[in-house]
Amino acid sequence: MASELRTLRDAEWDDWSDALDRAFGGVPPSRENRALRRALTEVDRALAVWDDGDCVGTAGAFSFGLTVPGGAEVPVAGVTAVSVRATHRRRGLLRSMMRRQLADVRERGEPLAVLTASEPAIYGRFGYGPATQDMELSVDTVRLPAPDLPGVADVRLRLVDPAAAVADCERVYARLVPGRPGMLARRPGWERLPVLDEPGRRDGAGVLQCVVAEAAGEVVGYARFAVKPSHDHAGPTGTVLVRDVEALDPVGYAALWRFLFGIDLTTSVSVPGRPVDDALPHLVPDMRRCGIRLEESLFVRPVEVGAALAARTYRTPVDVVLAVSDPFCPWNEGRWRLSGDAEGAVCERTTAPAGLALSVRELGSAYLGGFTLSALAAAGRVRELRPGALTAASRAFGSEVAPWLPHGF
Fold it and tell me: Which of 64, 123, 128, 261 is catalytic?
């Protein structure tokens, strides 16, 4: 019986979800986790491949709003839940799902698709380029003094129940979204994801905790964390595992870190991902003690090149013709003239000579301003066809604030 690729039906979600869990392995999700996943799944955007009644391939998408340079919120498809059963690999199932999905994204009028990747090498051939980085930190809180700024003592800190404080924390998060490219506007239901606290996934840590920072009676920041206890012959060596930490101003941010540095029975703070321009390394006297490590996070794929490039603004005025190659989505192939500045942009097809040549993957990498066209050119991935075009375009595509994805999907 030939395999069948089609949109998921409501009654098939359990089989689809089970197939996904088997593909990724790990600890089975709790009942609460599974219920939340079911509630968040957009069934009309979920794809499944069936072989003789078995679900052997999965792919899905969430409808998000993504902040782009300039602060606009652009509708995007958040690609997720991609898997192919090991017994059915190398049969073109993944390619078929990716092609079907991108065609659907285009029909919905979303100019971009985005994803996070467990295996990044897979998605480059479908036009996805790494566009943001996470800065992971492992901070030695024994050798570093706690962060301090004038006014920190005036910030009130309160330990609160993580679930009960969701509304206050979400108000802080929502105010931050327009100010940083790469951040996602959370749709209803997504506020529950950061406070999931499954015992089977704690890896030796305690329960999830939350502290809020208040100034003038208003919540101006929050941190969610857990403590992983440990000891050696000299005493306690616990680690504070930070899940989220956000604040509306530098003083509130410093106050939260000061609290996290000072938790009893701990000697380090572990932070899985912060923006590369985060303030923490500059709040301590020796950033080498922060154990900084970078890795790519969000991958961006222009689905409609013209609409995507016109949706953001540009750091400096730009007028350049881009020769774009995109064999997977041939409607993007050809030359596009981009004209824009800090007020807005227009991007239309043209027959004029090109200044730069690149694939849609490199366009995705440069789109949020996290990677420069000049760096990509140095790697041989962008070609300058008109002298001066590279420097001008690379500068224009930049972002004053580093793009960052605060949570996975």
Answer: 123
